[in-house]
Design goal:
InterPro entries: At1g67623-like, At2g35280_TPR_dom. The chain has helices at 15-25, 30-39, 41-47, 50-55, 59-63, 73-81, 85-98, 102-114, 118-130, 134-142, 151-163, 173-182, 201-212. The protein is mainly alpha-helical. The chain folds into two domains: 11-52; 58-212, no CATH class. The protein starts with 14 loop residues before the first helix and ends with a helix.
């Protein structure tokens, strides 16, 4: 019988600590976790820790949620089960816009927002505004602190447009009514979409979303 392999100091750590370490690695992407999985039996076990699935970076899939319609089912199920906020965003986009399953889509997008995933916060807030849930919509968009700087919210919208590419989105009648209801007075330059204040910010963000549809 061949002598057993001597474990490195890292591999000798308790599995709970290894799981914590690999969960931090997971924030860099799936490839990094895959490399850890291939290193040794001890690290492979740690890669299966639920914290790894919760923290796993799914950026590439978030940019193209339709890729998960027929692929990555096991990965998505595991990430959703363990509360991965980015996975909830991906599933929310897919359910709400592709499958037209409104309750499921909103459920996942809200879970993403509650998990502090910025694109989930923005998209859930916009949908709430467009569906007439004005106070809720404002509450979520305000979490991105757009009053101080619109950089975060603008970055979210840029990335969300990528997520929606290739999806035929059905316009809901409530969207138009909600925009009319929140339209500010003429003191704001409504066609200047880049200049936004407390009176016109929500209205202009809603218009950007509806114009994208």
């Amino acid at each position: 019988m061949s002598p057993s392999k001597e474990l490195s100091p890292l591999e000798s750590l308790p599995q709970y600590l290894l799981g914590e370490i690999i969960s931090r690695v997971a924030k860099s992407g799936r490839n990094h976790v895959r490399h850890c999985f291939q290193v040794s039996h001890e690290l492979a076990i740690a890669c299966k820790d639920e914290r790894v699935s919760k923290e796993l970076n799914l950026k590439q899939l978030a940019m193209n949620p339709l890729a998960t319609v027929h692929n990555y089912q096991r990965l998505m199920e595991k990430c959703l089960q363990n509360g991965n906020a980015e996975a909830h965003y991906i599933e929310g986009v897919k359910q709400y816009f592709y499958h037209n399953n409104t309750p499921s889509g909103l459920h996942h997008l809200q879970a993403s927002a509650e998990g502090l995933y910025e694109k989930g916060i923005y998209l859930y807030g916009i949908l709430m505004l467009c569906r007439g849930e004005t106070d809720t919509g404002k509450q979520y968009l305000d979490k991105l602190q757009w009053v101080k700087s619109t950089t975060r919210s603008d970055r979210c919208w840029t990335n969300i447009k990528l997520s929606l590419q290739g999806i035929h989105i059905i316009m809901q009648p409530s969207y138009f009514q909600s925009i009319r209801d929140i339209k500010p007075n003429k003191i704001c330059t409504l066609n200047d979409m880049d200049t936004r204040c407390k009176k016109c910010y929500y209205y202009k963000q809603m218009r950007k979303f509806v114009n994208r549809i």
